[in-house]
């Protein structure tokens, strides 16, 4: 019975993932707190850029387009500066603690190579949130059998 349920569940989850899509879970809303460069300053610049983009879509005027272009350039500059600062701080930390520098360097390299491969994924429900594949369906199938 358990192996049949496992096969049934796997096929249902696979079909749901193909039709509904998958969503990466584990990263918080509003940015990834694991990156050192995602600061409140960067968050505000990106937020302003998104707001001006929505205003440009709503208005469609050339002035709104110009405001969006300026906000986009400003956000890109803030992000570039924040990333540069983060890498400079990383280099300074490597210089300070030379005993652990090799270990910290390779940990960082492995994390950067890995990217988002390790983040868990969930099937989306109708509302857009993660769906619960066992949420009552198992009991319904067992009653039907």
Distance between the termini: 10 Å
Total domains: 2
**Strands in their spatial order, largest beta sheet:** 1-2
Strand content: under 5%
What spatial form do the alpha-carbon principal axes imply? Answer: flat
Uncertain stretches: none
Helix content: 55-70%
Structural class: mainly alpha
Radius of gyration: 23 Å
Largest sheet, described in full? 2 strands, antiparallel
> For the residues shown, what is the average pLDDT?
79
Taken in chain order, the helices and strands follow as HEHHHEH
Number of strands: 2
Q: What's the helix count?
A: 5
Quick synopsis:
The chain has 145 residues and is mainly α.
Which helices and strands, and how do they pair?
Elements: H1 2-20, E1 22-24, H2 40-59, H3 62-96, H4 101-114, E2 121-123, H5 137-144
Antiparallel strand pairs: 1-2
Helix pairs in contact: 2-3, 3-4
Overview features:
single chain, 145 residues, mainly alpha, 2 domains, two-stranded antiparallel sheet, 5 helices, 2 strands, 4% strand, flat
Give an account of the 3D structure.
This protein is mostly helical and 145 residues long. The chain folds into 2 domains: 51 residues, no CATH class; 91 residues. Helix content is 66%, strand content 4%. The chain contains 5 helices and 2 strands; from the N terminus they run H-E-H-H-H-E-H. A two-stranded antiparallel ribbon has the order 1-2. Helix 2 runs antiparallel to helix 3 and helix 3 packs antiparallel against helix 4. The chain starts with a helix and ends with a helix. The relative contact order is 0.15.
């Amino acid at each position: 019975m358990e192996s049949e349920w496992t096969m049934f569940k796997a096929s249902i989850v696979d079909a749901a993932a193909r039709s509904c899509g998958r969503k990466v879970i584990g990263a918080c809303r509003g940015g990834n707190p694991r990156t050192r460069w995602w600061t409140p300053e960067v968050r505000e610049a990106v937020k302003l850029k998104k707001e001006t983009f929505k205003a440009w879509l709503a208005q469609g005027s050339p002035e709104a387009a110009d405001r969006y272009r300026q906000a986009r350039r400003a956000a890109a500059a803030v992000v570039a500066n924040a990333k540069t600062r983060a890498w400079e701080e990383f280099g300074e930390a490597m210089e300070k603690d030379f005993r652990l520098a090799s270990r910290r360097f390779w940990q960082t390299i492995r994390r950067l190579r890995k990217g988002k491969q390790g983040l868990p994924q969930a099937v989306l429900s109708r509302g857009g949130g993660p769906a619960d594949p066992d949420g009552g369906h198992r009991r319904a199938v067992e009653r039907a059998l």
